[in-house]
Amino acid sequence: MSFTKVLLISAVVSTFAIQIEATSRLADFASSARDVFQGITTAVPRHDQIAAQANGKAYPLIEFKVPPQHEKEFVNLFRTVHEIVAEQEPEVKYSLSRQSDGNLIWYIYGEFASVEDYNKHASQQYEHDFYNGINELGIVWESHLLQPVLG
């Protein structure tokens, strides 16, 4: 076997070993990141310490990054909560939307009479079930309480 072939085989083996090591480290990082964020993503958002209110109302906006393979499950989880809320809290107004370009970003926008009403809503068992369900699907979310500026 020529020196060139030996050198080429050695380079390929080394590259393969580096790729395996990098993949292993990435898997370890993903596992530890999942452990770190596990508690964060299972918490139901509360805003009792946020004073972002206008006219006494609360306007939560929750952003979800939904992988395409979990869109149906996500919509079904929301539908379940939406049906319960329509029956038990008819004064609550909120909706599910997604970005028009059809990417991974979905939103729940709501309107509540006060932050206290929103916190009461957020503490219901069906809300906990919703957030536990999206956590099981690996859906990442972020919650904001909006403060109207104009309009």
From TrEMBL:
Residues 62-126 form the ABM domain. Transmembrane segments: none annotated. Residues 1-22 form the signal peptide. InterPro entries: ABM_dom (IPR007138), Dimeric_a/b-barrel (IPR011008). Keywords: Signal. It comes from Apatococcus lobatus. The keyword Signal applies. The keyword Signal applies. This is ABM domain-containing protein.
